[in-house]
Task: structure prediction
Amino acid sequence: MSNQQAHNLVYIALGANLDSPSAQLNNAVAAMKALSLDGQIQVSSYYRSVPMGDVEQPDYVNAVACFITQLAPIELLDALQQIELNQGRERLVRWGPRTLDLDILLYNQQTIELPRLTVPHYGMKQRSFVLVPLEEISPELTLPCGSSINKLVNQTMRDELQKLPA
Ligand code: ROI
Result:
Protein backbone atom coordinates (compact mmCIF):
# COMPACT_ATOMS: atom_id res chain seq x y z
CA MET A 1 0.00 0.00 0.00
CA SER A 2 1.28 3.49 -0.75
CA ASN A 3 0.62 4.70 2.72
CA GLN A 4 3.88 4.78 4.53
CA GLN A 5 3.77 8.44 5.46
CA ALA A 6 5.30 9.13 8.83
CA HIS A 7 2.54 11.39 10.13
CA ASN A 8 -1.08 10.44 9.68
CA LEU A 9 -3.77 12.45 11.43
CA VAL A 10 -6.59 10.14 12.50
CA TYR A 11 -9.96 10.64 14.18
CA ILE A 12 -11.50 7.80 16.17
CA ALA A 13 -15.08 7.52 17.48
CA LEU A 14 -15.46 5.90 20.90
CA GLY A 15 -18.70 4.37 22.18
CA ALA A 16 -19.67 2.15 25.11
CA ASN A 17 -22.88 1.23 26.92
CA LEU A 18 -21.96 -1.67 29.22
CA ASP A 19 -19.74 -2.18 32.29
CA SER A 20 -19.11 1.44 33.35
CA PRO A 21 -19.04 3.09 29.92
CA SER A 22 -17.02 6.14 31.00
CA ALA A 23 -14.33 3.91 32.52
CA GLN A 24 -14.26 1.91 29.27
CA LEU A 25 -13.58 5.14 27.39
CA ASN A 26 -10.87 6.18 29.86
CA ASN A 27 -9.14 2.82 29.39
CA ALA A 28 -9.43 3.05 25.61
CA VAL A 29 -7.87 6.52 25.60
CA ALA A 30 -4.98 5.24 27.71
CA ALA A 31 -4.49 2.29 25.35
CA MET A 32 -4.64 4.45 22.22
CA LYS A 33 -1.75 6.61 23.51
CA ALA A 34 0.49 3.69 22.53
CA LEU A 35 -0.64 4.15 18.91
CA SER A 36 0.17 7.85 18.88
CA LEU A 37 3.51 8.92 17.45
CA ASP A 38 4.19 11.40 20.26
CA GLY A 39 2.05 9.75 22.94
CA GLN A 40 -0.37 12.67 22.73
CA ILE A 41 -4.07 12.25 22.11
CA GLN A 42 -6.77 14.88 21.98
CA VAL A 43 -10.11 13.75 23.40
CA SER A 44 -13.50 15.46 23.34
CA SER A 45 -15.85 15.66 26.30
CA TYR A 46 -17.84 12.52 26.99
CA TYR A 47 -21.48 12.67 25.91
CA ARG A 48 -24.45 10.58 26.97
CA SER A 49 -26.55 9.58 23.97
CA VAL A 50 -29.73 7.64 23.32
CA PRO A 51 -29.05 4.37 21.42
CA MET A 52 -29.46 4.59 17.69
CA GLY A 53 -31.21 1.58 16.15
CA ASP A 54 -34.06 -0.69 17.18
CA VAL A 55 -32.33 -2.79 19.82
CA GLU A 56 -33.46 -2.04 23.38
CA GLN A 57 -30.28 -1.23 25.31
CA PRO A 58 -28.73 1.21 27.81
CA ASP A 59 -27.72 4.75 26.84
CA TYR A 60 -24.26 5.16 25.33
CA VAL A 61 -21.30 7.26 26.35
CA ASN A 62 -19.63 8.61 23.20
CA ALA A 63 -16.55 10.70 22.44
CA VAL A 64 -14.09 11.40 19.63
CA ALA A 65 -10.30 11.30 19.86
CA CYS A 66 -7.60 12.42 17.46
CA PHE A 67 -3.89 11.70 17.25
CA ILE A 68 -0.98 11.31 14.85
CA THR A 69 0.10 7.79 13.98
CA GLN A 70 2.62 5.96 11.86
CA LEU A 71 0.29 2.99 11.48
CA ALA A 72 -1.19 2.27 8.06
CA PRO A 73 -5.02 2.13 7.99
CA ILE A 74 -5.31 -1.67 8.38
CA GLU A 75 -2.64 -1.70 11.08
CA LEU A 76 -4.61 0.95 12.93
CA LEU A 77 -7.83 -1.06 12.52
CA ASP A 78 -6.11 -4.18 13.90
CA ALA A 79 -4.74 -2.23 16.86
CA LEU A 80 -8.16 -0.74 17.66
CA GLN A 81 -9.89 -4.11 17.40
CA GLN A 82 -7.29 -5.54 19.77
CA ILE A 83 -8.11 -2.81 22.29
CA GLU A 84 -11.82 -3.63 21.90
CA LEU A 85 -11.10 -7.31 22.56
CA ASN A 86 -8.88 -6.50 25.54
CA GLN A 87 -11.81 -4.63 27.04
CA GLY A 88 -14.15 -7.59 26.71
CA ARG A 89 -15.84 -6.80 23.43
CA GLU A 90 -17.96 -9.64 22.09
CA ARG A 91 -19.77 -9.36 18.79
CA LEU A 92 -23.09 -10.90 19.75
CA VAL A 93 -25.94 -8.81 18.37
CA ARG A 94 -25.65 -6.57 15.32
CA TRP A 95 -26.38 -3.04 16.57
CA GLY A 96 -26.53 -4.47 20.10
CA PRO A 97 -24.88 -3.23 23.29
CA ARG A 98 -21.11 -3.24 23.62
CA THR A 99 -18.39 -2.59 26.19
CA LEU A 100 -16.35 -0.66 23.65
CA ASP A 101 -16.59 0.37 20.03
CA LEU A 102 -13.67 2.14 18.31
CA ASP A 103 -14.33 3.31 14.75
CA ILE A 104 -11.90 5.04 12.40
CA LEU A 105 -13.73 8.17 11.26
CA LEU A 106 -10.98 9.87 9.26
CA TYR A 107 -7.47 8.99 8.11
CA ASN A 108 -5.86 12.18 6.87
CA GLN A 109 -8.14 13.27 4.02
CA GLN A 110 -8.11 9.81 2.46
CA THR A 111 -11.01 7.82 1.09
CA ILE A 112 -10.44 4.13 1.80
CA GLU A 113 -12.57 1.27 0.44
CA LEU A 114 -11.31 -2.07 1.65
CA PRO A 115 -13.31 -5.21 2.54
CA ARG A 116 -12.70 -4.58 6.26
CA LEU A 117 -12.55 -0.82 6.31
CA THR A 118 -14.45 2.13 4.87
CA VAL A 119 -13.13 5.62 5.61
CA PRO A 120 -14.66 8.15 6.14
CA HIS A 121 -16.91 6.07 8.39
CA TYR A 122 -20.11 5.40 6.43
CA GLY A 123 -22.60 6.68 9.02
CA MET A 124 -20.75 9.60 10.53
CA LYS A 125 -22.59 12.42 8.77
CA GLN A 126 -25.91 11.30 10.23
CA ARG A 127 -24.74 10.65 13.79
CA SER A 128 -24.96 13.42 16.36
CA PHE A 129 -22.85 11.36 18.79
CA VAL A 130 -20.00 11.49 16.25
CA LEU A 131 -20.39 14.98 14.75
CA VAL A 132 -20.87 16.97 17.96
CA PRO A 133 -17.72 15.68 19.72
CA LEU A 134 -15.83 15.92 16.42
CA GLU A 135 -16.74 19.58 16.11
CA GLU A 136 -15.70 20.15 19.72
CA ILE A 137 -12.11 19.02 19.10
CA SER A 138 -11.82 20.22 15.49
CA PRO A 139 -14.17 23.11 14.74
CA GLU A 140 -12.29 23.98 11.52
CA LEU A 141 -12.43 20.46 10.11
CA THR A 142 -13.50 19.77 6.53
CA LEU A 143 -14.37 16.21 5.52
CA PRO A 144 -12.95 14.61 2.34
CA CYS A 145 -16.35 15.17 0.67
CA GLY A 146 -15.87 18.92 1.14
CA SER A 147 -18.47 19.43 3.91
CA SER A 148 -17.28 21.53 6.82
CA ILE A 149 -18.03 20.10 10.25
CA ASN A 150 -19.93 23.14 11.47
CA LYS A 151 -22.29 23.00 8.50
CA LEU A 152 -23.08 19.35 9.31
CA VAL A 153 -23.80 19.94 13.01
CA ASN A 154 -27.11 21.55 13.85
CA GLN A 155 -28.94 22.47 17.06
CA THR A 156 -31.12 19.34 16.98
CA MET A 157 -27.97 17.22 17.06
CA ARG A 158 -26.56 19.22 19.98
CA ASP A 159 -29.86 18.81 21.85
CA GLU A 160 -29.70 15.03 21.45
CA LEU A 161 -26.54 14.79 23.54
CA GLN A 162 -25.86 15.41 27.20
CA LYS A 163 -22.31 16.51 27.92
CA LEU A 164 -20.99 14.66 30.96
CA PRO A 165 -18.96 16.49 33.61
CA ALA A 166 -15.19 16.06 33.11
N1 ROI B 1 -26.02 4.58 19.48
C1 ROI B 1 -25.36 5.54 20.16
N2 ROI B 1 -26.07 6.51 20.73
N3 ROI B 1 -24.02 5.53 20.28
C2 ROI B 1 -23.26 4.56 19.71
O1 ROI B 1 -22.02 4.59 19.83
C3 ROI B 1 -23.91 3.55 18.99
N4 ROI B 1 -23.22 2.55 18.38
C4 ROI B 1 -23.82 1.61 17.69
C5 ROI B 1 -25.31 1.55 17.51
C6 ROI B 1 -25.81 0.23 18.07
C7 ROI B 1 -25.63 1.68 16.04
N5 ROI B 1 -25.99 2.62 18.22
C8 ROI B 1 -25.32 3.59 18.89
O2 ROI B 1 -23.09 0.68 17.09
Summary: Residues 3-163 form a domain with the Alpha-Beta Plaits fold (CATH 3.30.70.560). Strands lie at 8-16, 42-43, 47-49, 60-69, 101-107, 112-114, 117-119, 161-163. The longest helix spans residues 73-86. DSSP finds five helices and eight strands in the chain.
